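Forwarding the complex inputs:
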Amino acid sequence: MSGYDIKRVLKSLAWLIGDPSFGSLYPALHALLRDGLATVEVRPRQDKPPRKVYSITDAGREALQEWINQPTSNASLKAFVMRLNLADSLSPAGLVAHLKQRRAQVAAHRATLEQADRTLNEGDDLGQRLALNYGLALANAELAWLDRKLDGLSQQPRPAKHVPGSRTI
Amino acid sequence: MSGYDIKRVLKSLAWLIGDPSFGSLYPALHALLRDGLATVEVRPRQDKPPRKVYSITDAGREALQEWINQPTSNASLKAFVMRLNLADSLSPAGLVAHLKQRRAQVAAHRATLEQADRTLNEGDDLGQRLALNYGLALANAELAWLDRKLDGLSQQPRPAKHVPGSRTI
DNA sequence: ATGTGCATGTAACTGGTTACATGATTCG
DNA sequence: CGAATCATGTAACCAGTTACATGCACAT
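Prediction (whole assembly, four chains):
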């Protein structure tokens, strides 16, 4: 993809992972080139300015794999979605491990929220209770989603062929 | 509260809003003092190091109100939770407005996710589809939560007295 | 005694944003 | 014909983290 393309994809997930500026994206791409993790190919087009199409190298794939596999101690939503987005590069087993890891983290997080909710006595700060309640709702929704996906993945580890109209995912 | 107290509260919501380091928290507190938005009171304690208890000033309250009221163009989860956490400082009507604003933003966001989901054809990138699906699930959960809260707030704008065992929020 | 939690701070570094700069194309 | 979108980049600035520095209290 080109830098612009990457920006567009990231933008579509802006709610989850934010939307990096070109001022950080292009330098990052240049750094990848410098480190041999990616290559560029300048594609001239009719009546259009040429685009710079970046491709990942073997070294890049290796580094990516390493990044994906390193355990995320912090339960950062952003990092999780980024990894999810790159799930292709994971083996099916790796994906399951990733989801399970996330599940454990969210469950732990929910426990701390519930703990905080319990210690916060009735009369207290409405705002804090609202925020806590919100967090719990989101955590529960995420756990439900993770369980659904994990269930689906364990039942049919690799959907051999696409059945028209099934829309699994 | 003291800087340490603030850190603890923020930490309990780390999943939602992250957990700022002391290296940013203390300087921020000093800046508030400098700008007259807060005051400190040093409270010496028996057998313990003194704590610096910060209090908001009228000017600070004003600035906070301004911050809360300014429309959040970016649907940042972090900013939303922060505002939620400070809902006390809002009038009940302000809180409702805030929730409604958020509802509109999340709905818009869900629409863009659905759009992206539709354009992403079947065979495409599993990772991207997973991330999109995840985003949709979270968005739907949040919308449901917002609707529930908005419903509750419109029915009893201000619960006059606490009824034991009700646990509304 | 040693480590963990309380409690406060500073300085170097880093990663990111904002603003700037350029230029072609497409749409109303 | 001007505005928006495509498309790429650089430089100044800023907000935050990491690492460092200090010291007391409490539990194992």
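Residues 126-155 of chain B form the longest helix (30 residues).
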